[in-house]
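Worked example 2:
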Amino acid sequence: MFVTEFLDYFKEGNGYTSMIVSLLVGVTLCSGPISSAFVNRYGCRPVTIAGTLLASTCIALSYFAQNILTLIFTIGIGAGFGFGLIYLPAIVSVTMYFEKYRSLATGIAVCGSGLGTFIFSPLSAYLIETYGWRGTMLIIGGITLNCIIFGATFKPLQSGPAKLPENTLSRSHSVGQQINGTYSNESINSKVPSIDSTAAPNGIRTAVSHQNITEDGNKLKSRSASGTMYRPDILYQGSLASIPDHATSRFDVRPKGGYGSLRRTNNGESQDFSDPIDEGFCQFYWPSETECEAETKKQCKILGFSCSPETRDTFDEMMDFELFKDWVFIIFVVSNFCTSIGFNVPYVYLPSVAKDYKLSITESSTLLGIIGIANTVGRIILGYFSDKAYVNRLLVYNICLTVCGISTVLSVFCVDFMSLAVYSAFFGFTIGAYVGLTSVILVDLLGLDKLTNAFGLLLLFQGIASLAGPPLAGWISDQTGSYTPGFLLAGIMIIISGVILFLIPPLQKYYAKRNKVIENNNVS
């Protein structure tokens, strides 16, 4: 709604004006790795509150804007970064609290954007008609400020003993512990906790910590890598119970030079496997006090800025480009890039299309509201069925994107409110797969241990594509005098994003066949 007002008020082109929205979305997505580092260091609550203060202040300052460039900085960059600091902690908080019903909980949580579109589209239209776009900016800034209250409810989970759930592995083993270069035997009996440690599928949990013992053996220091973002499932929006076996990360725990007992607890029954542990399979290394202090004092930098080792590690994990050696991931990134180019075009330009067809501002806002409510329904339904064992999630994802793209192409034939409303419903429902199933599909394709890395890279490319999509469609509209080419471009890009994903299953079969041949050759 605001883009149409800015076009009328500032008399600038569609491409230039739409940079406000494209930067807002792009900066929100691209700030994901930075937001993750802040969450890991400070927690979800303070990061959310800080993001709220930044976003609401920048939106309110837009009241004084005298040109589009000012709005680009206040709304696009300032509010965009603030919303980035709000969005990721909100998702992370839900995944921290839910495991079995995570898919449903996350589906309900992310419905906020769909409901927000449904509610705020007509509300913004009413406020603009009543107070003008400047007054509406002040009101929206005040409404955004309420996120401080919601952020304050993000109560951190307390670390402590957790009840061992069913179908969970527990282990006991004797290992050699190195104390300043020497190994001493220490008996370790551990149960893998449920919540306050790193999560993996099928009930397996691991905790990562580094302990330092001085030479006299009396003084013990502990430094735990238990930051929020160290959990490999922290960005996974589906139920952990629904993760297929092939998507689990390798859980190899065989200490050097010891004996181990691996016991699966399931419905009260246990089975022991007491075998000698292969030497050299895994080593438990306890760094010396000097090494711990040296690492703590070590100066780390990201893009020239000083940061803590934890922040550096989180950023490095999300921005590790090693995944681009995997053609399956490359195809998925290209698909997401194409989807992101077309994703925001209907949101930005559908009100302008409605205006060209002489529809009222109320009808224009209703179209966006239909997208919002259909998107909400789509996320819930698709999220629910994605947890069913008989559902091929990748196929559902591919079909939804393809149908979404086709409907966007056909939208150029919609010339009245009813036909545009039908398109809005189709677009909103089917694009829900793109938003709700991305993390689930990533785990299916790459495994849970690669999710944080893959999601970080996806956010980067989604952000870049979001920066390009609306301005490109707007520039084409400026050159042709019509929004039709822009919607055709958006639809074609979304169709491409769905169609190319059909290449993944045969590629997976090829990799499986090749790996089997390699294994057979190694055995022989």
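Residues 167-226, 248-284 have pLDDT under 50 and may be disordered. The two ends are 67 Å apart (CA to CA).
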